[in-house]
Amino acid sequence: LLESGTSLHWEEALFKISGTRQISAKPLLDYFAPLQAYIAAKNKENGVSVGWGNNCPPDDWYKSASQLGSLSACQVFALAAIACFTVRLIRH
């Protein structure tokens, strides 16, 4: 699988391994369902509220690029990677 390097699109590599071109989180969700149920029950039992507060995000959460100052190459790469990953999720 690795010997094909970048000559093989990742979806084709996935197909060669798994026989499908679809990626699903369902097996992970199924696997962790008992843990999720346990945590939800413990949170309810202990009065733990999960989620965002009323002030999240704060009104000033957005800062323009000029207010951010300069970003390191690592920060730019991380932001680009997150953006690409998000776009891929939305498209599929």
TrEMBL record:
Keyword Disulfide bond on entry: yes
Q: Which GO terms describe its molecular function?
A: metallopeptidase activity; peptidyl-dipeptidase activity
- Organism (species): Macrostomum lignano
Q: Which GO terms describe its biological process?
A: proteolysis
Q: Which GO cellular component terms, listed alphabetically, does the Swiss-Prot or TrEMBL entry include?
A: membrane
TM ranges: 68-90
Keywords tagged on the record: Disulfide bond, Glycoprotein, Membrane, Signal, Transmembrane, Transmembrane helix
Kindly provide the name given to this protein in its UniProt entry.
Answer: Angiotensin-converting enzyme
Q: What is the lineage of its organism?
A: Eukaryota, Metazoa, Spiralia, Lophotrochozoa, Platyhelminthes
Please report which protein family the annotation says this sequence is part of.
Answer: Belongs to the peptidase M2 family.
